[in-house]
Amino acid sequence: MTTLPIELLPERTLGTPPDTEALRGRLTFGWDCFPVSEALASAEWAAYASAVPSRELVHVVLVCSFLPETPQARGEFVRASLGLSLRTAEAEGPRPVARAIEPGERAQPVPSADSRVMLGINAGVLNVEVERQVTNNASGRAEWTVRGFGASQSTPMWEFRRVRRYPLVGDHTVAALVETVPDRVNVADVMLAAELEHRTLGIRRYRADLTPSQSSSITLAGPSSPTAG
Protein backbone atom coordinates (compact mmCIF):
# COMPACT_ATOMS: atom_id res chain seq x y z
CA MET A 1 0.00 0.00 0.00
CA THR A 2 1.22 3.48 -0.88
CA THR A 3 1.08 5.85 2.11
CA LEU A 4 1.73 9.59 2.22
CA PRO A 5 1.98 12.07 5.09
CA ILE A 6 -0.46 14.90 4.43
CA GLU A 7 0.16 18.54 5.26
CA LEU A 8 -2.99 20.42 6.23
CA LEU A 9 -3.22 24.05 5.14
CA PRO A 10 -5.63 26.36 6.98
CA GLU A 11 -8.43 27.84 4.90
CA ARG A 12 -8.34 31.60 5.25
CA THR A 13 -11.51 33.17 6.65
CA LEU A 14 -12.31 36.42 8.42
CA GLY A 15 -11.84 34.71 11.77
CA THR A 16 -8.55 32.99 10.94
CA PRO A 17 -5.48 34.59 12.53
CA PRO A 18 -2.91 35.56 9.88
CA ASP A 19 -0.17 33.57 11.62
CA THR A 20 -2.03 30.23 11.58
CA GLU A 21 0.46 27.64 10.37
CA ALA A 22 0.05 24.41 8.45
CA LEU A 23 -0.46 21.22 10.45
CA ARG A 24 2.09 18.46 9.90
CA GLY A 25 2.18 14.96 11.27
CA ARG A 26 -1.55 14.74 11.93
CA LEU A 27 -2.91 12.93 8.87
CA THR A 28 -1.65 10.21 6.55
CA PHE A 29 -3.40 8.82 3.49
CA GLY A 30 -2.87 5.43 1.89
CA TRP A 31 -4.32 3.52 -1.02
CA ASP A 32 -4.05 0.33 -3.02
CA CYS A 33 -5.81 -1.23 -6.01
CA PHE A 34 -6.65 -4.91 -6.44
CA PRO A 35 -8.52 -7.14 -8.85
CA VAL A 36 -11.94 -8.02 -7.47
CA SER A 37 -11.64 -11.37 -5.68
CA GLU A 38 -13.49 -13.17 -2.92
CA ALA A 39 -10.36 -13.05 -0.75
CA LEU A 40 -10.27 -9.24 -0.67
CA ALA A 41 -13.74 -7.98 -1.61
CA SER A 42 -17.08 -8.59 0.04
CA ALA A 43 -19.18 -11.50 -1.19
CA GLU A 44 -21.57 -9.01 -2.77
CA TRP A 45 -18.81 -7.33 -4.75
CA ALA A 46 -17.31 -10.63 -5.83
CA ALA A 47 -20.73 -11.82 -7.00
CA TYR A 48 -21.25 -8.60 -8.94
CA ALA A 49 -17.88 -9.00 -10.67
CA SER A 50 -18.72 -12.60 -11.58
CA ALA A 51 -22.08 -11.53 -13.01
CA VAL A 52 -20.52 -8.97 -15.37
CA PRO A 53 -17.27 -10.59 -16.57
CA SER A 54 -17.10 -8.28 -19.58
CA ARG A 55 -16.62 -5.21 -17.37
CA GLU A 56 -13.22 -4.15 -16.07
CA LEU A 57 -13.51 -3.65 -12.31
CA VAL A 58 -10.95 -2.50 -9.76
CA HIS A 59 -11.19 -2.80 -5.96
CA VAL A 60 -9.80 0.48 -4.57
CA VAL A 61 -8.93 0.59 -0.84
CA LEU A 62 -8.35 3.96 0.85
CA VAL A 63 -7.12 4.57 4.39
CA CYS A 64 -7.18 7.87 6.29
CA SER A 65 -5.12 7.81 9.51
CA PHE A 66 -5.97 10.56 11.99
CA LEU A 67 -3.26 11.13 14.60
CA PRO A 68 -3.69 12.67 18.08
CA GLU A 69 -2.71 16.27 18.68
CA THR A 70 0.86 17.09 19.66
CA PRO A 71 2.43 20.17 21.28
CA GLN A 72 3.62 21.18 17.81
CA ALA A 73 0.29 20.49 16.06
CA ARG A 74 -2.66 21.31 18.28
CA GLY A 75 -6.33 20.63 17.68
CA GLU A 76 -8.71 17.68 17.78
CA PHE A 77 -10.32 16.35 14.61
CA VAL A 78 -14.04 17.09 14.46
CA ARG A 79 -14.86 16.25 10.86
CA ALA A 80 -13.05 15.26 7.69
CA SER A 81 -13.96 14.44 4.12
CA LEU A 82 -12.35 12.34 1.42
CA GLY A 83 -13.45 12.66 -2.18
CA LEU A 84 -12.46 11.05 -5.47
CA SER A 85 -12.94 12.43 -8.95
CA LEU A 86 -12.70 9.53 -11.39
CA ARG A 87 -11.50 10.26 -14.91
CA THR A 88 -9.32 9.05 -17.74
CA ALA A 89 -6.09 10.70 -18.85
CA GLU A 90 -7.86 11.74 -22.06
CA ALA A 91 -9.82 14.98 -21.89
CA GLU A 92 -12.92 13.55 -23.56
CA GLY A 93 -14.91 10.35 -23.51
CA PRO A 94 -16.54 8.20 -20.80
CA ARG A 95 -15.40 8.31 -17.20
CA PRO A 96 -14.82 5.53 -14.67
CA VAL A 97 -17.71 4.94 -12.29
CA ALA A 98 -17.80 3.81 -8.64
CA ARG A 99 -20.37 1.03 -8.99
CA ALA A 100 -20.39 0.46 -5.20
CA ILE A 101 -18.79 2.00 -2.14
CA GLU A 102 -18.08 0.86 1.41
CA PRO A 103 -19.23 1.80 3.90
CA GLY A 104 -22.54 3.38 3.07
CA GLU A 105 -22.64 4.15 6.77
CA ARG A 106 -20.57 3.07 9.75
CA ALA A 107 -22.03 3.79 13.20
CA GLN A 108 -21.07 3.46 16.85
CA PRO A 109 -23.40 2.87 19.83
CA VAL A 110 -23.64 6.03 21.89
CA PRO A 111 -25.00 5.87 25.45
CA SER A 112 -27.61 8.39 26.46
CA ALA A 113 -26.69 11.27 28.71
CA ASP A 114 -26.00 10.50 32.34
CA SER A 115 -28.94 10.99 34.69
CA ARG A 116 -28.94 11.45 38.45
CA VAL A 117 -31.37 9.78 40.82
CA MET A 118 -31.79 11.34 44.29
CA LEU A 119 -32.90 8.97 47.05
CA GLY A 120 -34.11 10.53 50.31
CA ILE A 121 -33.69 8.45 53.45
CA ASN A 122 -35.45 9.50 56.65
CA ALA A 123 -33.19 8.56 59.57
CA GLY A 124 -34.97 10.32 62.40
CA VAL A 125 -33.04 13.47 63.19
CA LEU A 126 -30.78 13.15 60.17
CA ASN A 127 -32.04 13.46 56.60
CA VAL A 128 -29.58 11.69 54.35
CA GLU A 129 -29.63 12.03 50.56
CA VAL A 130 -27.90 9.42 48.43
CA GLU A 131 -26.97 10.41 44.88
CA ARG A 132 -26.67 7.64 42.32
CA GLN A 133 -25.52 8.29 38.76
CA VAL A 134 -27.13 6.14 36.10
CA THR A 135 -25.91 5.73 32.54
CA ASN A 136 -28.27 4.17 30.04
CA ASN A 137 -26.08 1.96 27.84
CA ALA A 138 -29.00 -0.10 26.54
CA SER A 139 -30.74 2.68 24.67
CA GLY A 140 -29.82 1.13 21.31
CA ARG A 141 -29.00 4.55 19.87
CA ALA A 142 -26.16 4.77 17.35
CA GLU A 143 -24.57 7.70 15.57
CA TRP A 144 -22.67 7.55 12.31
CA THR A 145 -18.90 8.02 12.30
CA VAL A 146 -18.31 7.37 8.59
CA ARG A 147 -20.81 8.00 5.83
CA GLY A 148 -20.36 7.39 2.10
CA PHE A 149 -22.01 9.00 -0.93
CA GLY A 150 -21.81 8.73 -4.70
CA ALA A 151 -22.42 5.08 -5.59
CA SER A 152 -22.87 4.68 -9.37
CA GLN A 153 -21.20 8.05 -9.89
CA SER A 154 -17.75 9.30 -10.83
CA THR A 155 -17.41 11.42 -7.69
CA PRO A 156 -17.67 9.18 -4.60
CA MET A 157 -16.93 10.72 -1.22
CA TRP A 158 -16.86 9.85 2.45
CA GLU A 159 -17.37 11.97 5.54
CA PHE A 160 -15.82 11.19 8.93
CA ARG A 161 -16.82 12.72 12.25
CA ARG A 162 -16.26 12.32 15.96
CA VAL A 163 -19.16 11.45 18.22
CA ARG A 164 -19.53 11.18 21.95
CA ARG A 165 -16.88 8.84 23.41
CA TYR A 166 -15.47 8.13 19.92
CA PRO A 167 -12.82 10.71 18.97
CA LEU A 168 -11.79 10.96 15.34
CA VAL A 169 -8.45 9.20 15.82
CA GLY A 170 -6.89 6.15 14.22
CA ASP A 171 -7.25 4.35 10.89
CA HIS A 172 -10.46 4.63 8.89
CA THR A 173 -10.68 2.37 5.84
CA VAL A 174 -13.12 2.85 2.97
CA ALA A 175 -13.33 1.25 -0.45
CA ALA A 176 -14.83 1.64 -3.90
CA LEU A 177 -15.64 -0.85 -6.64
CA VAL A 178 -14.67 1.09 -9.75
CA GLU A 179 -15.64 0.18 -13.30
CA THR A 180 -12.77 1.46 -15.42
CA VAL A 181 -12.80 2.54 -19.06
CA PRO A 182 -11.09 -0.12 -21.22
CA ASP A 183 -7.86 0.78 -23.04
CA ARG A 184 -7.52 4.06 -21.18
CA VAL A 185 -5.38 5.28 -18.30
CA ASN A 186 -7.89 5.55 -15.44
CA VAL A 187 -7.14 8.05 -12.68
CA ALA A 188 -8.70 9.09 -9.37
CA ASP A 189 -8.02 12.66 -8.23
CA VAL A 190 -8.00 12.88 -4.42
CA MET A 191 -9.47 15.69 -2.32
CA LEU A 192 -9.06 15.86 1.47
CA ALA A 193 -10.38 18.40 3.97
CA ALA A 194 -10.70 18.47 7.75
CA GLU A 195 -12.08 20.52 10.62
CA LEU A 196 -10.18 20.70 13.90
CA GLU A 197 -11.22 22.18 17.21
CA HIS A 198 -8.60 24.29 18.98
CA ARG A 199 -8.84 25.28 22.61
CA THR A 200 -8.11 28.93 21.79
CA LEU A 201 -9.05 29.28 18.11
CA GLY A 202 -12.27 27.23 18.09
CA ILE A 203 -13.18 25.30 14.92
CA ARG A 204 -10.78 25.73 12.02
CA ARG A 205 -11.04 24.17 8.58
CA TYR A 206 -8.05 22.80 6.67
CA ARG A 207 -7.46 21.32 3.24
CA ALA A 208 -4.80 18.85 2.22
CA ASP A 209 -1.70 20.18 0.50
CA LEU A 210 -1.53 17.71 -2.38
CA THR A 211 1.41 18.94 -4.43
CA PRO A 212 3.14 17.24 -7.38
CA SER A 213 5.57 15.68 -4.88
CA GLN A 214 2.56 14.37 -2.93
CA SER A 215 0.54 13.29 -5.94
CA SER A 216 -3.14 14.07 -5.77
CA SER A 217 -3.90 11.40 -8.39
CA ILE A 218 -4.07 7.61 -8.12
CA THR A 219 -3.57 5.49 -11.22
CA LEU A 220 -6.32 2.88 -11.12
CA ALA A 221 -5.74 1.00 -14.38
CA GLY A 222 -3.87 1.30 -17.62
CA PRO A 223 -4.48 -0.13 -21.07
CA SER A 224 -3.43 -3.62 -19.90
CA SER A 225 -4.20 -4.25 -16.21
CA PRO A 226 -4.88 -2.48 -12.89
CA THR A 227 -1.89 -1.19 -10.97
CA ALA A 228 -1.38 -0.05 -7.40
CA GLY A 229 -0.62 3.54 -6.50
What does this structure look like?
- The structure is a single chain.
- This protein has 229 residues and is mainly β.
- It has a single domain, classed as Immunoglobulin-like (Sandwich).
- It has one helix and 14 strands; from the N terminus they run ββαββββββββββββ.
- The strands form two sheets. Strands 1, 2, 3, 4, 5, 6, 9, 10, 11, 12, 13 and 14 form a twelve-stranded antiparallel sheet that branches. The protein has a two-stranded antiparallel ribbon with strand order 7-8.
- A hairpin with a 3-residue loop joins β12 and β13.
- It is globular, with a radius of gyration of 23 Å.
Task: Summarize the entry for a quick read.
The chain has 1 helix and 14 strands, in the order E-E-H-E-E-E-E-E-E-E-E-E-E-E-E. It is mainly β. It has a single domain (2-109, 142-221), classed as Sandwich (Immunoglobulin-like), CATH 2.60.40.
> How far is the N terminus from the C terminus?
7 Å
Which value, in Å, is the CA radius of gyration? Answer: 23 Å
* CATH architecture descriptor: Sandwich
Number of strands: 14
Return the CATH class: Mainly Beta
Residue stretches low in confidence (pLDDT < 50, at least 5 long) are 130-135, 225-229
What level of helicity do the residues show? under 10%
The oligomeric state of the chains shown is single chain
CATH topology heading: Immunoglobulin-like
